[in-house]
Amino acid sequence: METVTQRPHASTAAAASVVYYRSENTVYKRILVAIDGSETSLLALDAALQIAREADAELQPVYIIDAPLMAYDAPGYDPSILRDALTKDGTRVTNAALEKMHLQKTRGVARIAEVDLYGDGIAQRLLVAADELKADLVVMGTHGRRGFQRLLLGSVAERFVRMATCPVLLVPAPHPGALDTAAPAAAKSIEHPV
User: Fold this and answer.
1) Residue pair 48/33 in contact by the 8 Å Cβ criterion
2) What residues does the UspA domain cover (predicted)?
3) CA 77, CA 180: separation in Å to the nearest integer?
4) Separation of alpha carbons 154 and 107, rounded Å
5) Does the N terminus or the C terminus of the chain have fewer Cβ atoms within 10 A?
6) How many helices (DSSP H) and strands (DSSP E) are in the chain?
């Protein structure tokens, strides 16, 4: 049997649902969640917290610092200013995640990692963090960009999924204009034979 669980998430701007698949034999012991302070990453954190609580798993929120290379090459500009600002933001975001974890009695530690200036990108750095944690599951938000915007901006989530060595749960961004609704008292569960 495979359980399909739909979890509604309410946000101030819109509502989104997260669907994840879990077979009866699936055991998550270590879950990594990518966070950056965006609404989508907060939804991913909420989903990861719920799964971690249900599985009694360790949760590791990870914030990746990615300072643009051009900041290091600009004449007269001190790149440590940008790096310090990104580190401060990472500390704020990871502390907020740790507070949520504490309130929900979820164990784990947060981590701030930095991309290699001339090498890897965010997706590659997340992969390294997942490998170091020996993650059983990675949870991350996705903005759901399409067409030309996706071509220009790319997708960290898409790049990560292509390289991932463990299951990945992608949490979609809320649909623009969706009504803010309160989450129903219970999540819907549907069992399907495999």
Assistant:
1) yes
2) 28-172
3) 43
4) 33
5) C
6) 6, 8
